[in-house]
């Protein structure tokens, strides 16, 4: 029976830049000619160090090398491993006469050091203890064919330590999309700076643990673009203990508008999430005329069919809103408001087909937070889900600009984009969150943050970070990923928020 011990929960602590291909290439263009020792030598040394840290002496290290500089990194690593008394072989069967520059030199140096290049995995006569994937990195130009495709499939299947060099071969470093066959690593050692494709869509499944080695290059001297991988440090300034001398008015009044007939659960979930993560008061304005005037499970929620005349600080519109004329009327009334606004679910679906609502969203004095999942995003962009997922960052940025709003494009590696072009990827969360009601919880949680005074762009980042971390905490405790419920993430988020809100 397989045994997988629960790992202790540690939220990602440090945020860091995420660089797209054009930014990485610009750094390379400046740094490669200056670097001494050369960057490829440093990359190979870093790979060798990582292998040595993970593989006991005596184990065979099998390095899959491709025809470009990614393969060059692999050849340097192989030579260095031999020099350190380790057993290493290369698998590589490309036309070596077509190799150029440093990569060709790296191959030649490996061969001169007595290294062996095998034509395929079938030539091995023992099981490797480690597989290093140095086939293709950021130079991947098309889907991978034979023989590399079979090597990738073979390598991914091995019960060995599997290390991808820079990017798992077959993964698009910008988008996290598998372009065809794609290596499945336990860990990825990526160079110069971290890359968005390792953290969204297929990236997390393929890359495993991501380690960044700057190769001694001070990337901060270059254009780092506008993307970040979120870490807890990004929010430290707003995670403070509460002052003693406060009252419920200090923490804001959230109004949740939704809950059409047969969909009131969504509004209750959002409302409960808002209260449990710190809103001072929560009112539900439900479209269902038969809704109970209070929730027996959460009697602290104020429930009704009317929008309070005054006293509301934040709007959460959409959970279970439905597609009725009344839903449209509520949107038309609330979108122009000058209160902070979270728009989700049916609110987004209605927005997608209504030019007048779109205009009033764009004209808001405070940009709203929109929280589409990929299907909702596709509707808002007038395209297909596949087109959204082909480049999630570009889709989120396009939405943020088109609707002049902060956008959380949900899913594995949620992408947050601001109207001014800044963007971020959230590293927390797990497939246990692929269950009904999670989006409603996120909306409520965002409402609570806004009600407690978080600036809108920061709330749009911390909401998914906290929610995903809550689900990760549940997994670490053995609750999930299978069967986590949206309500359970609310309690876990409350615990984390209290743990994190300590005096520095
Ligand atoms: N530049 C630097 O100084 C540094 C770079 N570094 C390292 O270099 C990596 C980038 O190297 P790179 O640019 O050579 O690209 P790489 O990923 O090896 O692939 C290009 C080769 O593959 C080929 N090819 C592409 N797709 C293919 C396919 N589907 N099927 C078959 N062939 C395909 C393509 O051939 P072509 O398209 O011309 O036929 C070309 O030969 C980077 O990820 C990092 O590891 C580090 O050492 C730090 C310093
Ligand atoms: N595989 C996953 N990895 C990380 N987060 C996920 C995953 N699946 C779902 N989530 C998160 O869970 C939430 C689900 O929201 P949504 O799809 O709107 O759910 P629902 O419509 O059921 O309420 C989002 O915040 C999303 O990012
Ligand atoms: K690779």
From TrEMBL:
It comes from the Bacteria. (6S)-NADPHX binds at residues 69-73, 137-143, 148, 166, 266, 320, 373, 440. K(+) binds at residues 70, 133, 169. GO terms for biological process: metabolite repair; nicotinamide nucleotide metabolic process. Binds 1 potassium ion per subunit. Residues 231-500 form the YjeF C-terminal domain. Bifunctional enzyme that catalyzes the epimerization of the S- and R-forms of NAD(P)HX and the dehydration of the S-form of NAD(P)HX at the expense of ADP, which is converted to AMP. This allows the repair of both epimers of NAD(P)HX, a damaged form of NAD(P)H that is a result of enzymatic or heat-dependent hydration. This is Bifunctional NAD(P)H-hydrate repair enzyme. It comes from Tepidiphilus thermophilus. The lineage of its organism: Bacteria, Pseudomonadati, Pseudomonadota, Hydrogenophilia, Hydrogenophilales. The gene is nnrD.
């Amino acid at each position: 029976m397989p045994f997988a011990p629960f790992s202790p929960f540690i939220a990602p602590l440090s945020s860091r830049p995420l660089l797209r291909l054009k930014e990485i290439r610009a750094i390379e263009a400046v740094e490669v000619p200056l670097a001494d020792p050369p960057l490829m030598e440093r990359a190979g040394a870093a790979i060798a160090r990582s292998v040595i840290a993970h593989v006991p002496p005596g184990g065979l290290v099998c390095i899959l090398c491709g025809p470009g500089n990614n393969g060059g990194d692999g050849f340097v690593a192989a030579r260095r491993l031999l020099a350190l008394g380790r057993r290493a072989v290369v698998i590589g069967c490309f036309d070596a006469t077509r190799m150029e520059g440093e990569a060709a030199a790296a191959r030649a140096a490996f061969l001169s050091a007595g290294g062996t290049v095998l034509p395929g995995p079938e030539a091995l006569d023992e099981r490797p203890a480690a597989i290093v994937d140095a086939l293709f990195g950021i130079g991947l130009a098309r889907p991978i064919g034979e023989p590399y495709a079979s090597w990738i499939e073979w390598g991914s299947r091995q019960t060995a330590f599997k290390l991808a060099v820079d990017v798992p071969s077959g993964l698009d470093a910008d988008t996290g999309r598998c372009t065809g066959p794609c290596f499945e690593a336990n860990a990825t050692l990526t160079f110069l700076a971290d890359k968005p494709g390792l953290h969204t869509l297929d990236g997390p499944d393929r890359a495993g643990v991501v380690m960044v080695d700057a190769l001694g290059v001070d990337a901060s001297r270059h254009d780092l673009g506008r993307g970040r991988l979120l870490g807890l440090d990004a929010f430290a300034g707003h995670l403070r203990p509460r002052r003693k001398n406060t009252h419920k008015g200090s923490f804001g009044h959230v109004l949740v508008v939704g809950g059409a007939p047969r969909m009131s659960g969504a509004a209750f979930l959002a409302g409960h999430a808002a209260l449990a993560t710190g809103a001072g008061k929560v009112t539900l304005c439900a479209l269902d005329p038969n809704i109970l005037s209070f929730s027996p499970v959460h009697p602290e929620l104020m429930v009704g069919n009317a929008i309070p005349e005054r006293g509301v600080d934040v709007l959460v519109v959409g959970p279970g809103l439905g597609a009725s004329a009344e839903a449209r009327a509520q949107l038309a009334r609330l979108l122009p408001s000058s209160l902070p606004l979270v728009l989700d679910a049916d609110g987004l679906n209605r927005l997608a087909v209504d030019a007048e609502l779109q205009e009033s969203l764009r004209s808001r004095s405070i940009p709203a937070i929109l929280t589409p999942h990929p299907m909702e995003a596709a509707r808002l962009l007038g395209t297909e889900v596949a087109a959204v997922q082909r480049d999630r960052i570009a889709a989120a940025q396009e939405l943020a600009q088109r609707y002049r709003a902060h956008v959380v494009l949900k899913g594995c590696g949620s992408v947050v984009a601001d109207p001014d072009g800044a963007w971020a990827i959230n590293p927390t969360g797990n497939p246990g969150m692929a269950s009904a009601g999670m989006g409603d919880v996120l909306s409520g949680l965002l409402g609570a943050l806004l009600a407690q005074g978080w600036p809108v762009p920061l709330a749009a980042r911390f909401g998914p970070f906290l929610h995903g971390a809550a689900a990760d905490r549940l997994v670490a405790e053995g609750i999930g990923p299978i069967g986590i419920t949206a309500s359970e993430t609310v309690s876990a988020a409350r615990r984390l928020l209290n743990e994190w809100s300590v005096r520095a």
